[in-house]
Structures are given as C-alpha cells and as structure tokens.
Amino acid sequence: MTGPMGVIDDMISYLESVAHDPLLYLFLLFLYSIAAAVFLPIPVEFALFLSPDTPFAAKALVLALGKAVGSVLVFYIGYNVEEPIRRWSEKWTFFRAFVRFCEWFVTKLGYVGLFILLSIPFMSDTVVLYVFAVFNKEGKVLDMKMFALVNFLGALTRCAIVYFASGYLADYFGYDYTL
C-alpha cells in the first residue's frame, strides 16, 4: 500500500517486529511520540498495545516524555510563525477573525483546556499543540516549561484512560488480555 496509510502500516509492522525487545521498542516509541507531537497527526495510543514484553508503566512514561519533548519543539515553531500569521491576519478579514477566535480560545482555556484536550484518548494532539503554541500572544499566555509539563501530564492521563478502558472492555467481553 502506498500513501500515508501505507507508511502507517509499515511503522506498525516495524513496531510489532521489535515488540519483543523492550529497550529498542521504548526508544522507537519515544521517537514516534516526538514525531506525533510535531508533525504526525495520528494518535499514538495504539503503540501501547504492541509490546506485551514491555511494562505498561514504562510505555506510558516514555510516550509522555516523547510528547513533552515534541511539545517543546512545537512551542518554538509556533513562537517563530506567530508573527507571519499576524501579518497575514492584517491582510485578510476572514483570517483575522480566525486568528482572534484562536487567541480567545487559548487565552480562555489556558493550561486547563490544553490538559483536557490532550487527555482525550485517540485524538490527534498535533493540531491542539500548534493552536496553543501559535496563538500564544507572543509567548505571554503560556510558558514553555508549563506547556511541556501539561503535555507530559496529559499524555500520562491519556495512557491511564486507555489502560483502564482496555481492562474494562477485556473483562466485559471476556478476553484475557492485559497491556
């Protein structure tokens, strides 16, 4: 298969092939989590199910750490593209309205809103990260360290939700499966 779905299938196949080597698996999960935060708009929770030889807590911590590192990169990217976006908003009325809405959204929701959005399992957080990073009013609304910490905590919360939901569903349907 070619295209984006082919790449995703290839990545999943590769992760499955290294699933029995916990250290390699965790290293690749870390890199994948960074990539998912910065430019891959796909959820990473499926990776929690691929390596039964790797303790769930280790997978959750590595995934959260990768998300935090990726969020720092997104924060700097957002900070650097904010000015051009503001210039574009001066030229186009419809774009100005969009920028104002995004600024209001980020200012109104702040860290709590960011945490809630990043805690939703199987949701792509790439777009959320960029909205919060770009429309951060010259870095005055959100601090980079807190931004990374909220991403870390949101990812841990997301992993915990997936863990408990998968256990509940396994019990409900009578499967003998643990993460």
Radius of gyration: 18 Å
The strand count comes to: 0
For the record, the count of structural domains works out to: 1
Gap between N and C termini, in Å? Answer: 29 Å
Tell me the overall shape: elongated
Q: Strand-residue fraction?
A: under 5%
Helix coverage percent: over 70%
For the largest beta-sheet, the strand count, sense and barrel status come to: none
Which structural class fits the helix and strand makeup?
Answer: mainly alpha
- Total helical segments: 6
Query: Which regions contain 5 or more consecutive residues with pLDDT less than 50?
Result: none
Mean pLDDT: 84
Helix and strand succession? HHHHHH
Architecture overview:
With 179 residues, this protein is mostly helical. It has one domain. The chain has helices spanning 4-17, 22-38, 56-91, 93-118, 126-134, 144-173. The protein is elongated.
Structure keywords:
single chain, mainly alpha, elongated
Please describe the topology of this protein.
Layout lengths: L3 H14 L4 H17 L17 H36 L1 H26 L7 H9 L9 H30 L6
Describe, in short, the structure shown.
The chain is 74% helix and 0% strand.
